[in-house]
């Protein structure tokens, strides 16, 4: 761990939005040897959603020869760290919050208009379409489209009469 870090250490951040009564986001970071493990939970009413944890090695984002100049010079690859945090903590928390409030999905495959989603699904193989169909009700309904299966059958079984 970087010099000055206590081990084991626990860092906790809680957030409640004034427009979302009875809701709270908690992010908990724990140092475990050379890794920092970040867990996040969303509590809306009595329901608690947990997103997958993020494990990072802080040494991979610190400049080893930092001489005490600007704080920005102490870090490296912050865009990679930001992307990891966004993809593994922020987006899943946003998705869980929107689902808990019965709001529509705003990113990912499920946010695509049906005609564009069908064009994407047509690029997949049958096993991948079946995997996508098992992720949520919305995608399952889209994957049941007759024209999609007709296309997959014609593409994957050329020469056969359907």
TrEMBL record:
Gene3D superfamilies according to UniProt: 1.20.1280.50, 3.40.1000.30
Pfam assignment, any one: PI31_Prot_N
Domain F-box: 106-152
GO biological process, one term: positive regulation of autophagy of mitochondrion
GO molecular function, one term: protein kinase binding
Alphabetical list of InterPro entries matching this protein: F-box-like_dom_sf (IPR036047), F-box_dom (IPR001810), Fbxo7 (IPR047118), PI31_Prot_N (IPR021625)
Protein name, UniProt field: F-box only protein 7
Organism: Notothenia coriiceps (black rockcod)
Top-level taxonomy: Eukaryota, Metazoa, Chordata, Craniata, Vertebrata
């Amino acid at each position: 761990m970087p010099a000055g870090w206590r081990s084991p250490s626990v860092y906790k951040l809680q957030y409640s939005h004034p427009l979302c009564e009875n809701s709270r986001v908690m992010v908990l970071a724990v140092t475990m040897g050379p890794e920092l493990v970040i867990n996040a939970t969303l509590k809306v009413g009595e329901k608690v959603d947990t997103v997958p944890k993020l494990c990072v090695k802080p040494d991979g984002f610190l400049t080893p020869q930092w001489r005490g100049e600007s704080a920005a010079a102490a870090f490296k690859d912050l865009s990679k760290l930001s992307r990891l945090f966004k993809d593994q903590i922020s987006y899943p928390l946003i998705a869980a919050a929107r689902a808990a409030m019965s709001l529509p999905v705003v990113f990912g495959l499920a946010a695509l208009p049906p005609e564009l989603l069908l064009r994407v699904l047509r690029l997949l193989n049958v096993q991948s379409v079946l995997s996508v169909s098992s992720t949520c009700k919305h995608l399952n309904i889209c994957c049941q489209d007759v024209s999609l299966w007709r296309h997959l059958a014609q593409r994957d079984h050329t020469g056969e009469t359907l």
